[in-house]
Amino acid sequence: MIWLILTILLWSLTPAISTIALSELDPLQLMFYRNIVGTLTLFSILFFRGKFGKTWIGRKEIKKLLLIGAIGVFLHYIFLFSSFKYAPASQANMINYLWPIFLVLLSVPLLNQKISKINFVAIALSFFGAAIVFSGGLLSGKDIFGYSLALIAALFWALFSVLGKTVKTDGITAVFIYFISGTVLTVPAVLIFSEIVVPVKLTTIISILILGMLCNSLSFVC
After folding, report:
1. Residue 105's CB: how many other CB atoms inside 10 A?
2. Prediction pTM value
């Protein structure tokens, strides 16, 4: 329970910290720096725990891990950070937290799990709550684009979580490979669709470190 509470606390920092960094950087630039910091953090954790280089991973499993990393560390966070740019971060994050509901739905075709009647009721209530948040942007004509991005981010995270259940590799090692995948994909993306900008604001640099070291890497370990 302590690990769970720590995870929730770390994840809850993401919207506010991301918004600070996005005042100077665009979503791809933030992804670029965050992924580098996250990868180095996970490498350090594996090294100090004595696990680095001691786990044999087959070629087929590595391909699966790289694909899952592309979905969870690359695609999910591009849409999530972009949603924070185009909508109020707290409300966009509420839409993003439809991912547990999508996880349940995706578990049916991908993991052959069954949904009980009470789960259907819970899913309906969750979508109703999200619709209230979503309709605010729809009726006012504002923030609808950001909310839509958050909804797509939720779908990617749910898919990431479902596929992660099929992984046999040690958890921290798997997350390290996820981040390698996300970092490798972010480099050409930022070069093609954006540019590498060196952050100059102290608040931006601190935000990148918090996101990379705590919110988006140590939280996986917790």
Report:
1. 17
2. 0.87
